[in-house]
Fold each of these.
Amino acid sequence: MELLNAIILLLNYTIIPALTYGSQLALGAIFVTLIYGVLRFANFATGDMMSFGTMFAVLLTYYFQSIGVGLGILPTALITLPFAIIAMIFYMLFIDRFVFRYYRVNKSAPVQLAMVSVGVMFVTQAIIRIIIGPFDRRFLDGEKFILKASEFKEMTGLNEGLTIKSTQAITVVITIILVSILFWFLNKTKTGTSMRAYSDNEDLALLSGIDPKKVVMLTWIIAGFLATIGGVLYGLDKSYKPFVYFNNMLPIFAAAIVGGIGNPFGAFLGGYVIAFAEIFITYAYKKFFTYLLPESLAPDTLVQLLSTDYKFAVSFSILVIVLLFRPSGIFEGKKI
Amino acid sequence: MTAGYGNGPDIISSCSINVDRGEIVAILGPNGAGKSTVMKAMLGLLTLKSGSVILNGEDISKLSPQDRVKKGISFVPQTKNVFAELTVKENLEVGAFLREDNINRVIEEIYDLFPILKEKSSQIVGQLSGGQRQQVALGRALMIKPSVLMLDEPTAGVSPIVMDELFHHILRVKETNVGIIMVEQNAKQALSISDRGYVLVTGENKFEGSGEELLKDPEVRRSFLGG
């Protein structure tokens, strides 16, 4: 019984939240890795592009709520996703046409493009502040919980409750669907293969008749999907605050690098590595040990390795360790 | 053909190369003679100042490299001539990117030509040996069923055994009625399998003739083949 309580405790406070957070990071990390693999630069505007897409979803959610359109128990934001994705793709293609393309055509160094993306980041941040402002917003509606702690306790008679929020289930399900479609597309379709070929050997891809313009456009379209969906899922689960999205760039980059930059499957797994590490290291295990250990040994302190304020330090440490010991990422495998 | 890079001086001037189907032509010459430039000009990677590129009686001088590929001119670069992170089969599929029809038959033909590729079809090309990679490179270029195949120093950096094997494969490709233009440093070996050869010096045709003629020509031997 004590053991079961301890397991439920861990599930509730670490494993389920880490799976959710990991999925959200994974989508961002695949976005980073795709841009890096195909367009060959580190996109520092990642966090704010995710924020930009989410902003549309938030505004449209308010609009749909005001005209009384909803999905019942599911969040209204899910209907707004297609519109937000389209808006995001247009914004990305617009930025690419008027900013990135110039440097690509001139064959600028990757670091120059990365700096350009910092500029795009600032501009995007400013646009977001003008349109929606810097405040924290919640736009989740519909049924909040799939399983409430009290219901779980009644059902099982355990001391510890297990809560499954609807946003957690939605996040995991949508991530699995999106990532499966993406990997099927990249590995099994002619267009996906041509994208991987372009990323692998640009000159030979040109000689084989692959049109670079199409590959670039396609990359931004996929990026639009990943950024918007990743951002909306994060916003639904926590809340939408533009600055937090900017902050999330560190764990997202860490996930992409842990997975081997340029390798989408690695980035996907990297998201979970970072999320689990952050949550396991910042979780206070006091109650967990109280269940498992005899009373005399029960801990007096919180048994927390690091305060949650330092959760970014965890991603940063992992990033540094990976770069020192396995610079090509901890997962073997082919690049995109 | 006359061409050069940007506004710089002409690298090749009034040089002329032709190849028929089922024929191997070698372009030879000392370093800096413009051998690779000739190929780039034919591929459309640099624009001609004068002259023209004619394929199957059609002037393709104004077309983009992609469109020339569509017309049936295929190129194997000297280095980075495979997609190292893709499988053998994917390499062939990308080679046929411009083909709209069913490519499985063409893939089978390539497998007949290079049986080892069938065996390794799902292996990542980066894990193959140098000789096998060259076969992948040839196979990829042949997927569009080109009329002309251009090889840029196919034997650069391969061992003598692999070189023999490679020449053997090139001869088999020739039998499929493809015209092959080959830029080579290994003049003697290249001429031994070529039907004709061109010797370029400072961007002009200095000598031309059949492989044997060139090998026997005392002036070519002295100036270029090393006695």
Note: The first helix of chain B runs from residue 35 to 43.
Amino acid sequence: MTMSNAYIDDFPAEAKLVRTAFYSSFLALALGGVFGIIQTLHRTGYYRFIDSADYYTVLTAHGVFLVISFTIFFLVGVFTWAITTSLDRGVEDLRFSWGWYGLMATGITLSGVAILAGFTDATDISASVLFTFYAPLQAHPMFYLGLVLFVVGTWLAGADWFRSWWAWKQENPDSRIPLPTFMVLTTMLMWYIATLGVAAAILLFLLPWSLGLVDSVNPLLTRTLFWFFGHPVVYFWLMPAYMMWYVLLPKVSGGKLFSDPLARVVFVLFLILSVPTGIHHQYLDPGIAEGFKFIAMTNTMFLLLPSLLTAFTVVASMEHGARQRGGEGYFGWLTALPWRDPVFTGMALAGLMFAAAGFSGMINAGMNINYLVHNTFWVVGHFHLTVGTAVALTFMAVTYWFLPQITGRALWSRSVALGQVVLWFVGMTFMSNAMHRGGLLGVPRRTAEPQYDGFEFEAAVGSMGELQAQIALGGILLTLSLVLFFANVFGTALNGRSDELPANEYAGTLSGPEDAPLVLDNLKLWTAIAVVLVIFAYTFPLLSIVDRGGLFGPDINPLPVSLETVHLLAFVLESHVTGTLESIAWLGVNR
Amino acid sequence: MNVHTYEKVWLIGAMVLIVGFIVTITYGSVGLGIAMVDDSEETIEPSELDEDERFADPRVEQVGENEYEAYVVAQTFIFQPDPIEVPAGSEVTFYVTSPDVIHSFSIVGTNVNTMVIPGEVAAMTVEFDEPGEYGVVCNEYCGSGHHTMEGELHVVPDEEFDMTELSVEADDEVETGDEATIEVEVENRMLEALETTVALEIGDETLEEDVTIDGGEAETTTFTIDSADLGEGDHDWTVTVDDYEDSGTLTVADELEEDDDE
């Protein structure tokens, strides 16, 4: 019936699943984007129409919707595509697949509702605890429960992909694991290990505590368990982007992947090193010995290796593509790349920004220089380059490749798409550069109003006003870019079915799996090494934290973050003036 | 495994870079002595800070010739003490804790930056060479008033720095002919002795007394004034010790008002 060989033609049922996951991801992107621009204008002082106390609800929503729902729904879509395409078989049981999707969707809806309820007085449900939900800040139980369901959904998704691989292996006992499948499996193994931390934090401590089953928690313990998960989660966002740089970017550049073996090495390194690094987010935490911080620092530094290798492989693959297209010279080949293709340009610009992010990341990782930038706006600049550009821009760019594959409709407008990816790059250049510079002046992150009564931030070059202007301008350009993105998503959905779609293919390799030692495919071995490293990096810190502060911590009182507490906090402030601490206990009693 | 020559070179370069980073960081810690906030401090019960010897009264203490300790409490949404005052050219160890949620204690524009976690005490030793004024911010979200949480750190010139505390107890009113007393307690919280002059100005008179107060001690100077010399009426007085000042009013009346209760 149809002439094309797109994904939807080969796997119509799976295409629907991938499509649904992508649309869920885009919904989160839209919400996150709206909250993003509200925040940008509020923080910079250009336009404030919300109360500063509500800023933190906005910030929680911006963070959770973008780094949990946008990224991870996109990931499950990409990974489902990667498994089915590279193994050339549909999912084993569609009902199971829809089951994990449903669980994820239910979970994020519960968490999302708990967060958004923070805007209204009609209910005392709220969860303005930010993405890190550090106790004793306390969210409504629905927030934690939703996160648990969402994560369990991703676990089942991983089980689904492993099931496909096992079924495939029965039929292909002597074949190498296809590269995209290898990437999915190693990423999921990393994710299983990583999420144990957040699962323990929520199920053992935070959820029972929010339900009133236990009186107290150890804030340092739950925080450490959060970062056990909180660092590897950034690689969970990043790995689908890496996969796209390895399997799609060489293809759209017009060539082949430079090296399959080194791509496998990179993913194995991420599996091994992603988790035992989380303590590098706690360089400034009292109660953790310097030695443990040092171990996390060295592991983090070695984690630069897979990213540096990726930089080589991706650029080499692009160069190969350019030379196939007639490019010549040391740098002349750059002009032969398909710069008018939004899929290519978006990914290339995302990669470029990721290189910049690598440099600021190296500074963050340096445990003593970290003191200068920790929790400043610098860090916000850093992760708007990583997850906000390397990941988000790659996702948006590959969406222009995926949309025809999963909808069967031609892309609405390639020129709008090209404008969109360039606009994102320009907007983020303004915004993240100013954020980095602001951080160096000591401007804190996570604040509604970085304007203080007692002192001013002093810029050696430029001024605070100029930085604020750049951030606001960047935020506006990014918002415009999102509008263009959604125009294309809707425009494409409204197009008619096309019979002339590109085939569902990913890049071949110059140096193929036959060059990769068999041991690279030994997932049990790499998992075992990863577990050993995690035990090595975490056993003693966790034991020490429990030994110091107890499993359920000292006698602390929860600080439920809801609108109601705004009124309570007025009393707290008042009583602080008299210098008493009783108000804190009072808060606890009246929650 | 088949690895391209260029890629091998790149791989070696990357490893050299990584090891180089680790070496420089290690040198910063060991060679330059840039210490991390660590687990050297005992844990503390956050609900009992008001009974703690260090944190019940947040303050700066002198512990050595040029060494000071600052006991700081960070809580929603203030820092105590505020401002924190230390002399230039000194070495100050900050001990910071929280009775409620996680905060930070961050001196703007410097690398003095720590998380403040209830139950834990963060300790950091810092050298302040030059006088200056710094902002202190909380850079960890701590609730709806987080953005208002700020403090100040004043590094004052060494010669202008003291830890003198002045408190005055004075009669409010006396009957003409009676003697009025004004008791001036001067506490010297520095380690070395303080030589200074306690001065009282009242009416046209100025009374002065030189005092020497040993480190960590307090001295009380009592001024006795004959009210007859002052005459009937309200008399403003001012007590001055170095830069510190306290003032009040003494009323001299022919007949003290009867207390209605009697």
Note: Chain B is about 10% helix and 50% strand.
